[in-house]
Specification:
- This protein is of the alpha+beta class.
- The chain folds into three domains: about 130 residues, no CATH class; about 160 residues, Sandwich (Jelly Rolls), CATH 2.60.120; about 120 residues, Jelly Rolls.
- Helices cover about 20% and strands about 35% of the residues.
- It has ten helices and 20 strands.
- Strands 1, 3, 7, 8, 10, 11, 14, 17 and 20 form a nine-stranded mixed β-sheet that branches. The protein has a five-stranded antiparallel β-sheet with strand order 5-2-9-4-6.
- Strand 15 and strand 16 form a beta hairpin.
- Helix 2 crosses helix 9.
- It is globular, with a radius of gyration of 25 Å.
- It starts with a helix and ends with a strand.
């Protein structure tokens, strides 16, 4: 017994050492040691000009409290209700974090175009963080930005790829599939131009699409590809190869164009200047050969000179034998709402399923009065769960789900959009960026 008594402290020491070896380094300590100290502290330390200007000290021991829950010194970011790093977690926490706006190099065009008063991106110049560092920080913020605990996988840091700012380049045609090209076209000064262009795909049979790639010149508000409802008569289809303006020169909606929109079936689109979306293996969308693709482009020019728009789209096809699930596209939309002047209005609409479905992707569409767009599951065991959140009307996230969102018949998605109408006019549904919309796009299969 006396030998065992003497061994107890030694055994305890061995157990303690063993536990420490297996624990790994806490996520916040990794961020400090691997990212902040080598890349940020030289500028953001006590007494430096940048530290005085930003009010941000990132030296060890001071950085956590300076970041998490702290208000930014930048007035524009503060007025946008951002904190430097939010501890709310999830997509909302990410969207409320000024730090993420400042370092997310892959969103550089949005940052420079939409937030010129946020200051320069960080690190300054084009010394961007690696993709691994970005994903490591992102997963920490989405986990609630804790000071203690391991919430990010250090293997993420092995990804040394780094963002390189691209310039607009025509897409090379796909090896399997076909390419669409729209433009170049002009957008007059201080004008929003939206038009449609029906393109003959020259398909002799239905094809299955598992990837869509889009590249646009700067200035686009959105680009959408439409097919048509299966029962659309040939007399209701527009002519091929003709630009159909949505508005007349006096600003009024061009009725013949509006009539062709009534039979549209959403096929793909984005509000980002470039998109490369691939469906999961075994999943593809059916593109019917009886119709072409109606290209819908919307450019907003708020400058005093003409800008030039142009869009390339690559449609990648796959053999039918490789398709296990045919994805169907949806557009959940509310057009019956009114936003009173000088008021914040929240609108909720719920869309129920009439069959069992699995949803693989969703993204929102609204205009500049929208301050928050939330999607929750309605019904079932996941009732009330938030599956989508954004406060960015111009470049909303396109979210993919793995595992897929499973909804049974009778369950659905509840859309809640909040709008801050600071104007003197009542705003309703409409096609200008100064009107409003409330749409959720995505795909599913039964």
């Amino acid at each position: 017994m006396k030998y065992l008594t003497k061994l107890i402290p030694f055994l305890f020491l061995l157990i303690s050492c063993s536990e420490k070896v297996g624990e790994g380094t806490e996520t916040w300590n990794v961020i400090q040691e691997e990212i902040l100290t080598p890349q940020c502290v030289n500028c953001h330390m006590q007494g430096t000009t940048i530290a005085k200007q930003s009010g941000l000290i990132l030296s060890e021991g001071a950085s956590y409290s300076a970041l998490v829950g702290a208000l930014p010194k930048n007035l524009a970011a503060k007025n946008d209700n951002l904190v430097i790093v939010s501890n709310e977690g999830g997509l909302k926490g990410l969207g409320k974090s000024f730090l993420w706006e400042k370092i997310n190099a892959h969103d550089r065009e949005h940052y420079l175009g939409d937030h010129p008063d946020y200051g320069q991106m960080m690190p300054p110049g084009e010394n961007f963080l690696t993709d691994g560092q970005l994903q490591f920080i992102r997963s920490w913020i989405e986990a609630g930005a804790p000071e203690l605990g391991i919430v990010s996988d250090e293997k993420l840091l092995l990804d040394s790829n780094r963002y390189e700012p691209p310039s607009f380049q025509p897409l090379a045609p796909p090896e399997t599939g076909f390419q669409l090209h729209l433009g170049p076209f002009e957008v007059p000064p201080n004008y929003e131009r939206e038009f449609f262009h029906y393109t003959d795909t020259k398909l002799s049979e239905d094809v299955f699409v598992n990837r869509i790639q889009i590249e646009m010149r700067p200035g686009s508000h959105h680009f959408i590809l439409y097919s048509f409802e299966p029962d659309t008569k040939s007399g209701r289809l527009p002519a091929f190869g003709v630009d159909r303006e949505l508005r007349d020169p006096d600003g009024a909606i061009h009725t013949p164009t509006l009539m062709t929109m009534l039979n549209h079936q959403f096929f793909g689109g984005t509000q980002w200047p470039r998109m490369d979306y691939k469906l999961p293996p075994g999943v593809a969308m059916r593109l019917p050969s009886q119709f072409g693709l109606d290209q819908n482009v919307h450019y907003v020019n708020r400058s005093d000179s003409i800008i030039v728009g142009e869009v390339y789209s690559n449609i990648y096809t796959v053999e039918r034998t490789k398709v296990n699930h045919v994805a169907e596209l949806f557009a959940m939309s509310s057009v019956d709402f009114s936003l009173p002047p000088k008021k914040v209005t929240t609108i909720t609409r719920t869309f129920y399923m009439n069959k069992n479905v699995k949803i693989g992707q969703i993204f929102s569409h609204a205009h500049e009065l929208m301050t928050e767009f939330v999607v929750k599951i309605s019904g079932g065991s996941r009732d009330g769960e938030v599956v989508y959140w954004t406060d960015d009307w111009q470049h909303p996230p396109i979210l993919e789900y793995d595992p897929l969102i499973e909804l049974n018949s009778g369950e659905g998605l509840m859309l809640t959009a909040t709008y801050d109408n600071s104007t003197d006019q009542t705003v309703k549904f409409g096609f200008l960026s100064t009107d409003e919309m409330m749409i959720l796009f995505g795909w599913f299969f039964e």
